[in-house]
């Protein structure tokens, strides 16, 4: 059979079909609005968690979940694709005075805008490009820093338990977790903070297979409901040794929120330059 030169593996997904949200607690919602909505230009979910206890912030088809209770930090980098980096830089400069005293800072890097949030989370904001497929706004990756010698075990876990395609480079494992989405685990000699309870949510196609593996090893931390469970220990599937901690909210494709349409606004709209009919942004 001829392939006509197409790389058929390029479109392969494993059992994980999408990374949907990153949940990090925040100590103060008004500062979070300034940073995530005004600075990054993202959109507060208008339907869910609209009060002061929690805020969902949409970035294309993904979300940040930001419950108001203390500070959590991803030990690494959250990758974002934003359609217009020039506009982003203007917005970041605009919020600087309001975020004075917080850990907020930003700078232009080689292929992205590097942003540190008010409580130390680090973001890499990229322009759309071939490495992100057709994503014009979204969360293409989260990169976690991990102990030396663990990337291979972490990769083996995702390959074995969730059948995810994994690409290894020296000291790192890139796990495909959806169309144009990855989790990256990069080894570092630097200090890695103790796991603080942040979580990610993924959708998986085969809900029982990973569950069986995790249940057998007593790794299920919560049986949330019929369509969701949680685990946090990433273990080497051969030795059982813990390689990393990251809470996963695992949802099946029968979860009621699967395929939920996320509202995204056109962050370029202003009263001064208002464009009728252009309020929404369709990723
Ligand atoms: Fe969650």
Describe the structure.
The chain is an alpha+beta fold and 283 residues long. It is built from four helices and 16 strands. It has helices at residues 29-39, 85-95, 151-162, 207-216, and strands spanning 16-23, 43-44, 56-59, 62-65, 76-81, 105-108, 113-116, 122-126, 138-146, 166-169, 172-178, 181-187, 199-204, 220-225, 228-235, 242-252. The longest helix is centred in the middle third of the chain and has 12 residues, at 151-162. The structure holds fe (ii) ion.
Name the descriptors.
binds fe (ii) ion; alpha+beta; globular; 283 residues; eight-stranded mixed beta sheet; 16% helix
Task: Give the arrangement of secondary structure elements.
Blueprint: E1 16-23, H1 29-39, E2 43-44, E3 56-59, E4 62-65, E5 76-81, H2 85-95, E6 105-108, E7 113-116, E8 122-126, E9 138-146, H3 151-162, E10 166-169, E11 172-178, E12 181-187, E13 199-204, H4 207-216, E14 220-225, E15 228-235, E16 242-252
Parallel strand pairs: 1-4, 5-8, 9-12, 13-16
Antiparallel strand pairs: 1-13, 2-3, 3-4, 5-9, 6-7, 7-8, 10-11, 11-12, 14-15, 15-16
Fe (ii) ion binds next to strand 1 and strand 13.
